[in-house]
């Protein structure tokens, strides 16, 4: 297993629930390190560009509407097998199908407002980290 970086977003619903700390705590307890972080209120252009792969999907408009509905916290997580580890911690896209004890099972109720985003592959992690952070905003430790 290699040390990887992945892009995590705490989505507007989880920020509104005041769950930022509890969610970051799960990453840290699982051995992932936060090496970059910021709070942003995404514009439609930023959210649409981030989720460009879903542009033709029927849920795209709702997804952009939700992601721009309030502030988010974007972070770069670093650690062994970070991409898959983060996806495991998050749980299934639909919280109703997410395994007990996962972030989405514990903090989300609907597939549209599902608490967190995580990169799904090395290629998307590289693109997504660069989408939000310049090299000098990432602090290896
Ligand atoms: P994310 O990108 O946000 O980490 O979520 P994901 O990989 O688990 O799911 P993805 O397929 O990339 O979809 C992105 C977001 O779009 C919404 N979605 N709605 N109604 C639907 O069938 C549907 N499918 C996806 C979800 O909010 C999902 O997080
Ligand atoms: Mg995805």
TrEMBL record:
GO terms for molecular function: ATP binding; metal ion binding; nucleoside diphosphate kinase activity. It holds the Pfam family NDK. This is Nucleoside diphosphate kinase. HAMAP family: NDP_kinase. Its main location: cytoplasm. The active site is at 117 (pros-phosphohistidine intermediate). Major role in the synthesis of nucleoside triphosphates other than ATP. The ATP gamma phosphate is transferred to the NDP beta phosphate via a ping-pong mechanism, using a phosphorylated active-site intermediate. One of its GO terms (biological process) is UTP biosynthetic process. NCBIfam families: PRK00668.1 (NF001908). Gene3D superfamilies: Nucleoside diphosphate kinase-like domain. ATP binds at residues 11, 59, 87, 93, 104, 114. Its cofactor is Mg(2+). InterPro entries: NDK-like_dom, NDK-like_dom_sf, Nucleoside_diP_kinase, Nucleoside_diP_kinase_AS.
